[in-house]
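User: Some background: our group keeps a shared notebook of sequences we're curious about, and every so often someone picks one and asks for a predicted structure to add to the entry. Today it's my turn. The entry only has the sequence so far, pasted here. Could you supply the structure so I can complete it?
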Amino acid sequence: MKTETLSDVDSLSPEAEARPIRNPNCVVCGTANPHGLRLRFFRTSDGARASWHPAGHWESFHHTVHGGIITAVLDEAMSQAIMAHGWEALTADLHVRFRDRVIPLEPLEVHGWVVAKRRRRITAEATLAGSNGAERAHAWATFLAPR
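Assistant: Of course. Here's the predicted structure to add to the notebook entry:
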């Protein structure tokens, strides 16, 4: 069994880089969801990216964005990277390492990319970083394409 690495799978075309990737009802990226986060993801040469300024109503502890919200954002970044390749897959296993507090209204960048694809299994990673580039959280996930 050969595992395809990112260099072995479809590369993203330059003309696709600036087009947004959206599902209008998605809780993370949907523009039609009145309760959603409304992140706007864009294809990049290696996956998908979005800027995020988390609102204060996503707090858990005072001045700290809830870890579940951060996890959802990282999961979506990986999903968007997978969709940028033209694949459909669902999260099967997800691990998140929280490295530092995420403060409401702070400017952040989320980046997701595909690591490898083997048959129905796709592995991906994502990071959430502050404007200074310091990583706030990192995620690793396995996705499965539907049969």
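Suggested note for the entry: Residues 18 and 42 are 6 Å apart (CA to CA). The beta strands are 4-5, 20-21, 41-44, 47-52, 90-98, 108-118, 121-130, 135-144.
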